[in-house]
Design goal:
mainly alpha, two-stranded antiparallel ribbon, two-stranded antiparallel sheet, 4 strands, 44% helix, globular
């Protein structure tokens, strides 16, 4: 299955588990605590809110589009994304409520969220690029050098190409984020103290290079 070869995960990353069900549970919790809440987005988007953290945990604290980890990257590098952008809904109170429903919200790094902001996703791409059920992992893959690539089936699809470019999925920083995930996983699994220290040093150097690249290349 696609989720067994999910480009967003290394061998050390847990797969997403019943994301849609977990989101429904969290939405019920929010509405139970705040019965007058109409736009759920406002509750989970607040960095200081416990719901913000719970929402991130549903996605294993990783960007649903590129796989970057909240933990290797700082908290301010992540946001709650509207999968179908707000322009897809009527500019009314009802439209904003619909756009802000839990089912339409996704945990995302800033780069992916802001890159896709102007993209209006319509059928069949709303299903094809679904990040919650793993469908998106059939559209993109990792190559042998750990870059994110478009799978052969969709190489000539203009919308997929636009999505890929707008989210900067081909950037060097996406590769370094993945390598960081791999090193972090090895670091956590390593039992030998000397090797663990060496892995920690390598991870620190890699992330410094990654952050330098963001500043110089404007990857965000």
């Amino acid at each position: 299955m696609a989720r067994d070869k999910d480009y967003r995960n290394t061998e050390y990353c847990p797969i997403l588990n019943k994301v849609e069900e977990q989101k429904q549970v969290l939405e019920k919790e929010i509405k139970s605590e705040f019965p007058r809440t109409k736009i759920v987005y406002n509750k989970v988007n607040n960095w200081d809110s416990v719901y913000h953290k719970k929402f991130a945990q549903i996605y294993n604290n990783k960007c649903a589009y590129c796989g970057a980890l909240w933990g290797l990257l700082p908290v301010e590098s992540f946001e709650v994304d509207h999968f179908l952008n707000e322009a897809s809904f009527p500019d009314t109170t009802e439209g904003r409520v619909e756009a802000g429903r839990m089912i339409n919200l996704v945990w995302s790094c800033i780069s992916c969220n802001r890159g896709k902001r102007e993209i209006t996703i319509k059928p069949p791409y709303d299903d094809l690029l679904n990040v919650d059920n793993g469908n998106i992992a059939m559209v993109f893959r990792r190559d042998r050098e750990f870059y994110i690539r478009i799978c052969n089936t969709y190489q000539n699809d203009k919308f997929i190409q636009q999505f890929y470019k707008s989210l900067h999925l081909g950037y060097e920083t996406r590769r370094l984020d993945y390598l960081g995930l791999q090193l972090e996983g090895k670091y956590q699994a390593e039992k030998d103290e000397k090797r663990k220290n060496k892995l920690g040093e390598c991870l620190s150097i890699l992330m410094k290079e990654r952050n330098r690249m963001v500043v110089t290349d404007g990857a965000l």
